[in-house]
Amino acid sequence: MTETRERSKEVQIWFGPQHPGITGNMSVQTWLDGDTLTRGITHVGYLHRAFEKLMERRLYIQSFPIVCRICVPEPDTNEWLLASALEELSGLDREVPEKARWIRTLVLEMSRLGAMLMVLGGHAGSMGLGPAPQWMIALRDLVLDRFEELTGGRVYHMYIVYGGVRRDLPEGFAERMEQTLKTIESKLPLIDDVIFGSAVFRKRAMGVGVVPREWAFEMGISGPVIRAMGIPKDVRKDEPYEKYAELDFDVVTEEGSDIFARAMVRRREIQQSIDLIRQILARMPKEGPYCAELPNMLEWTIPVGQTYVRAESSRGEMGYYVVTDGSKKLRRVHVRGPSYVHGVSLLERLIPGTNIADLAPLMVSLQVCPPEIER
Amino acid sequence: MEFNSIQEVLDFAVRQEQKAGRFYGLMAEKSTDVVARKFFREMVGEERKHEAKLKAIKSGKLSGFSGQGTPQMNLTEVLGEPVFREDITLQEGLIIAMRAEKDAYEMYEGLKAFARDEELKKILEGLAAEELEHKARMESIYDQVVQREN
Amino acid sequence: MDDKIVKPEPPLGGPPQGSRPHAPVGDGCFLGEEMKPQAPSYKEALARIKNWFRANSLWVMAYGTGCGAIELRPLATARFDMERLGIAMRPTPRQSNVLIVSGYLAVKSLKRVIRSYEQMPSPKWIVALGSCTINGGMYWDSYNTINRLDLYLPVDVYINGCMPRPEALVAGFQELMRRIKKGEADGWRHYMENLDWYKENQKKIITDWDLPEYNW
Amino acid sequence: MSLKHVLQPFNAWVQAFSKPYTIPMKDTMRPGADRYRGWHINDVEKCVGCGTCADICQNAAIDMVPVKDPVKGDSGLRPKIDYGRCCWCALCVDVCTTGSLGMSNEYTWVEKDPEKCRYTPGVDAKPWDGSEKGWRQEEGFSLIVKDRVPMPMLDPKERIKTWAEVVVGYSVEEARKEAARCVSCGLCVAACPAHMHIPDYIGAIRDGDFEKALDFIYDNNPMPEMCGKVCTRRCEGVCSVGIQGEPLAIRWLKRFATEQFEDFAKVLHPEVKRVGEGKKVAVVGGGPSGVTVAYYLAVRGFEVTIYEALPQLGGATFFGIPKYRFPMPSLEKQVDLLKKAGVKIVTDHRVEKDEFRRLLEENDALFFGTGLMKPYKLGVPGEDLEGVIYALDLLRDHHVGKKVEVGESVVVVGGGNVAIDASRVSRRLGAEVTIAYRRRREDMPADDEEIEDAEAEGIELVTQSIPLRVEKLENGKLDFIWGPAEMVPPDRPGGRPKPKLIEGVENHLQVDRVIVAIGQKGEFEWMPEEVAEKVVTSRGWVEVDETGMTQWPGIFAGGDLVNSTADAISAIADGLKAVEGIQQFTLEGLSVSKS
Asked: What is the ipTM, given to two decimal places?
């Protein structure tokens, strides 16, 4: 085998940044032997905006609109992480009202739902299954409609702020949310048919892109990727934040650790998110403040301290390491994103031996989000 | 007193203004308080201006009077009746001035009853309104300067 | 920590106005087409027809350069369905004539965008989305992004907002079509005419310049 | 893998019969949600141009551009928004102090020229102006703190029994908390006659650097402790935080800063050049304007002597302001600094005509700020009766230690701070007090807080009451007769409405004293005739040019005699003006151009 490879001529192919199959603005430099990839190097930096640096020269309140841009499909986790880190360091977390906590959980779960819908569409789309992404993106758009009316923004919500959230639920929000959930639910069986029931998908997804179980902790894999290995790792359960401890849900796991298993985890987590949103809306207090009384945000200082906060995004564990130095600005913030692990280290390790046609489905199944890798 | 023509009325009014001017001039000479002195001197100038205005009307350079419907504060009616002394103050001077304007107004109002034709009546009315306006102005100054905190 | 990084930006003031009179409206620039002298009336009618066709089949290169790309997905799929406007996503620059710059461009991306743009056949248009392409947006003081796109590439239509919704994108495309039909969308020609100016700007910001020369 | 998996995907065809997802073309411009964040709108009338939006904008998308002339409390600037920067975060809307800024739910804007993507909302007409929907401020969410840290005060029942200071003062924590509310808009600096560096010293207090705060304060106010206690605080009237909430307690913060130090001389570091060595200046009148001139000239090296008729410097702040508002030690602290700065102080010395002439010859310049020391009379019959007294005399006698009696009941005529001070002093002397004021309560020139305090102390307020006459009754009391008034509009816009007597009604009030506090005037008997003739106006004021100089070259004036507002901070502002004028006059020998 080794001999053949040595004799064969390797072809170098760039996958991305301009490529419809790539998950964002990044590229993978690959070497091909026949149509099998022998190795690949990920190239990032196409989206580097230096957020961590920018935040060092902005007031705390000015940092807050920045973080949501770190991950485009799922901004709310980032907002929550920064808010909770600074609340912890400033002591504001004791004043966050009950209702704000419920609304935050709702928003986090809605953003997970939206992101899952989109990536499941991507799963199908990357294999050339046309209709599924069309529906999934449209369903996600319905979630965005709810986001729009709740937060005032479609994609970037800038809604979770220090001390709570910026606005109360609008009138009749729960009913319209329920309507949206029903619509999404009604399409799910069809999606099962078209994606999971499709011979093409099964053929191309099963047994492809298998992540060995022993890499799980060695590489810091998280999210659907680790749950598809059958390891029930979920920050929402392991270290519950906001109201997750009070909600009733089980960690979704699948066996197989291949593209199919990961898609299945996402498919089941869509249902889980729908259930969770229903629970949240049912148990959320109707009255009460939605934000603590904030200090003057132009002059807010936070005592010296550092903390690491983490949350479960749709891609895996997001973490923020935040250092404050007693001034009006952050001393340092470091974002730990799951995409760095999945999209750079893991992807490069998985590439050798993969068929070139499977590279796009593989990237989607790892849910690589380039803006989050390089921030 | 009876007037036969508008010219006569205006002549009379001019004489009145001249009289008032002389009166203020006298007071300005006599008073020892620097502020009151300056005020009376200002009043002399004021009366000269009125005189000039009347003369302009008489020669047809100006038509009609201003000062219709000035809002009145009726301060004059409330305040006492100071008399001239050498150490008269600005406050008393103002009261004297507003009283003088009021007297002039009442005089023209009274003369109106004797006016024979409408033209004359109108002129007298105008003169009265003019004096009323002067009175209101005096009251305004009193209000602003003396009763600053009242 | 208040160090502001000074970006190597060319002087503001926008690209130069067209230095020489433009070719007649909508004059043929299809790849390989020869410019033959034609009678004006016939030529004009033909130009109008050509522009009409061009406007109604905009092929967009599928290159999501920045965050605005996320709103292209709803636009391309069922809900907003841009194919009813004759807009379609194409995988490669050689098949497309509209380049969407969806937001901020890191310097590394700019290089790829320039290269992709130059690979596209004329006539070609650039639609720029969002604040970042206009004046830097929220990354105005970042050391790694450009602030104003039209210093490096000719922009035909700016769609304001951060980020513009699919509806705004529809409006932007309709405006682009209108401009194409009227023969006003001639950024590509401007690029061709002021290539030196654009190249100079591009080289100022792209320090590891290894792009091939633009050949028509 | 089975046949099932080959056929199952064809279930997708059932979608062919369902309602399409696609939004019909005609609806593609559907409106944004009710609270969508789209293009900005601004109510320019409500906006005061505080610039808080520009401060909070992390994208530097907001520039404050002049759109009209600045007036009090309105910088004349309005936010101009650059959509090449804006990220629609709406922090500017949430922080807006007036609530004027909002965002419409319009979101479509296509442009060819990137230079055109900016506008001043509310000024440049846009299709979305007047949009009803969109992101607006909401109750329950604010990025600034609207409520003031409450100032501890003595209980009204307790304080009428004592001369102790009513206001207790902030603790360090309270002061820093209050100072942290400031948004540094600077509208206060423009409103303050002396243009004190308010945001700077508040910032220093917030950071806990009280010495720095005092340095900022002393930069243009040599009597800060007085101002910290009794200032008319026009700054707070325009404070942008106060538009929707309570204004910053600027006065209390200044008071706090000064109270931190026993000896100002030890902590101050005035950075000025001693340019005036060898020049002599005489200051007649030791009120706030005179003290200002003396202090700032002295630190610049001038040789300054103050002549004061009363036993203590301070002018109206010494003899006029009761000690429960401004205690003696505070005044002495400030006078002490004056002495340390090298000012010669001559108290209990009234400058008369000849001496004035001599001073004029001996000095390079002369400043007088003798204030309004004489009361205006009531002007009604009976005003000369025994028992009709003047508030100024009452306060002065009280402060220099003479025994004053007011009997059991008094009526105070007037509505200014003097009237309120006289009432509250009378109250503490044990009398039942009624204040008779000709206009409405909202027209009262006195400080609102003072009026409230007075009412809390049991002082009755009778507004729209015109004094008619005073009569002596057989039981020895006075009968104060007044008539009700109706209000007529002012003769010029912005003026005070005028009270007009409703004739035929007479009200009686039996009192022991009638205290007159309707107004004060300056006196010029001490001044040489030739000088008085030149500098005094026909209304009893002194006219000065923009350098503080009177018509007589070399003579400068300031204080209540000069300005129309008659408060301490304006006097200090006059003093500051005169300091520059005197320096210019004495050093450059310029006869400053007359306006």
From this structure: 0.81
